[in-house]
């Protein structure tokens, strides 16, 4: 099946800073459908993804892998078409010459909710093991909130951003962090 648009080459697109001078992702990308490539500080491709809301996708990647989110290139499309989005993503990965970590060996870290349970102290693990469901949920929420605060602090310190980030409260009950 042929795409209904010409696929721009990565080389033809300008690098755009991931965060602007005020530490924000470009609001113009909110609710924009398209494909984006994320690059590290040295402009080495880290992941190519597509989304119905590029802005939200970029925010998710920023909280998961802030040390690798410095530059981006993107292509928007007017109407959702998984075929077109996948064609662009595939062409960009091929043009890159290798599968970026976020599309290969590190795909889970780039795309899945953050598992706050791995940050549990030995004491918390012990308490969790001895607790009943209700208290386990309470402990997981406490750990998730602590990891959330650490993430926000890390973003403030390393990337000078304090953009609003609201995490899914239901997932915190499972010890997971993902933006709403």
Describe this structure in words.
This protein is of the alpha+beta class and 180 residues long. The chain folds into two domains: 10-111, GIY-YIG endonuclease (3-Layer(aba) Sandwich); 114-177, no CATH class. It contains six helices and six strands. A four-stranded antiparallel β-sheet has the order 1-4-2-3, sandwiched between helices. It is elongated, with a radius of gyration of 18 Å.
| Topology order in helix (H) and strand (E) letters | EEEHEHHEHHHE
Q: Write the CATH homologous superfamily of the largest domain.
A: GIY-YIG endonuclease
Q: What portion of the residues fall into strands of 2 or more residues?
A: 15-25%
Q: Structural class of the helix and strand makeup?
A: alpha+beta
Overall radius of gyration: 18 Å
Shape: elongated
Strand order of the largest sheet: 1-4-2-3
In short:
The chain contains 6 helices and 6 strands; from the N terminus they run βββαβααβαααβ. The chain is α+β, with helices and mostly antiparallel strands and 180 residues long.
Descriptors for this entry?
180 residues; GIY-YIG endonuclease; two-stranded antiparallel ribbon; 6 helices; 39% helix
Produce the secondary structure layout.
Layout: E1 16-17, E2 33-39, E3 45-51, H1 54-64, E4 71-77, H2 82-96, H3 107-111, E5 114-115, H4 122-130, H5 133-159, H6 169-172, E6 176-177
Helix pairs in contact: 4-5
């Amino acid at each position: 099946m042929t795409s209904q648009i010409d696929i721009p080459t990565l080389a033809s697109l300008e690098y755009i800073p991931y965060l602007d001078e005020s530490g924000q992702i470009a609001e113009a990308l909110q609710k924009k459908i398209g494909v984006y490539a994320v690059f590290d500080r040295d402009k080495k491709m880290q992941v190519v993804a597509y989304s119905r809301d590029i802005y939200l996708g970029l925010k998710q990647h920023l909280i998961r892998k802030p040390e690798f989110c410095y530059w981006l290139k993107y292509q928007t499309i007017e109407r959702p078409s998984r075929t077109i989005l996948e064609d662009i993503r595939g062409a960009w990965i091929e043009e890159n010459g290798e599968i970026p970590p976020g599309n290969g060996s590190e795909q889970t870290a780039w795309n899945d909710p953050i598992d706050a349970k791995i940050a549990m102290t030995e004491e918390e693990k012990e308490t969790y093991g001895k607790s009943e469901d209700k208290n386990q949920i309470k402990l997981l929420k406490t750990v998730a909130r602590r990891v959330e605060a650490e993430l926000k602090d890390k973003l403030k310190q390393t990337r000078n951003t304090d953009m609003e980030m609201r995490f899914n409260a239901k997932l915190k009950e499972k010890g997971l962090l993902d933006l709403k």
